[in-house]
Amino acid sequence: MSRNVILIAIIVVIAWYFYFKSTDKQQQIISPETSEQQSLSQGNSQTTETEDEQLIENLVKEGIIEKIELDGNSPKVYITADFYRIPNEDKKAIMEVLYKNFTTNNPEVTSFTVYDAKSGDEVATYGSDGLKQK
């Protein structure tokens, strides 16, 4: 029962995150920014990075992701059994946030590898082309 509540909470957080990301894009398209608004949007981009990091931290805390190893230009993400229970749309959203965070922190990162935390087996790789399962 508690795992279901945790999964629902994570899904709500991910949905909330992407909802606000889409409304930000609509606002940028509708109205041109003045120099004052540009400085505000730069502050928002820093907030967005913080939101990404918070989302990743929450995924680790909730046990969806066991750990992340930043191994040079090829990060490794270890997922738990709870990750497999998440709907595919949310899995894709999580992978996009992870990829964005990795490439923001290290522009030389072109992809990351996903491993099963229990078995240690390679499950997939994620890069600019999307998810490639093994």
Question: Which secondary structure elements does this structure contain, and how are they paired or packed?
Answer:
Elements: H1 2-30, H2 35-61, E1 65-69, E2 76-79, H3 81-84, H4 88-105, E3 111-116, E4 122-127, E5 130-133
Parallel strand pairs: 2-3
Antiparallel strand pairs: 1-2, 3-4, 4-5
Helix pairs in contact: 1-2, 2-4
Give structural notes.
The protein is α+β, with helices and mostly antiparallel strands and 134 residues long. The radius of gyration is 16 Å and the shape is globular. The protein has helices spanning 2-30, 35-61, 81-84, 88-105, and strands at residues 65-69, 76-79, 111-116, 122-127, 130-133. The model is unreliable at 23-45 (pLDDT under 50). The protein contains four helices and five strands, in the order ααββααβββ. The chain starts with a helix and ends with a strand. 58% of the residues lie in helices and 19% in strands.
Major β-sheet strand ordering: 1-2-3-4-5
Q: Note the overall shape.
A: globular
Please tally the helical runs, counting DSSP H or I stretches of 4 or more residues: 4
Number of DSSP E strands: 5
Q: What is the share of helical residues?
A: 55-70%
Low-confidence stretches: 23-45
Structural class: alpha+beta
Series of secondary-structure elements, N-terminal to C-terminal: HHEEHHEEE
Mean pLDDT: 78
Count of individual domains: 1
Distance between the termini: 31 Å
Percentage of β-strand residues: 15-25%
Rg over C-alpha atoms, rounded to the nearest angstrom: 16 Å
Biggest β-sheet: count, sense, barrel? 5 strands, mixed
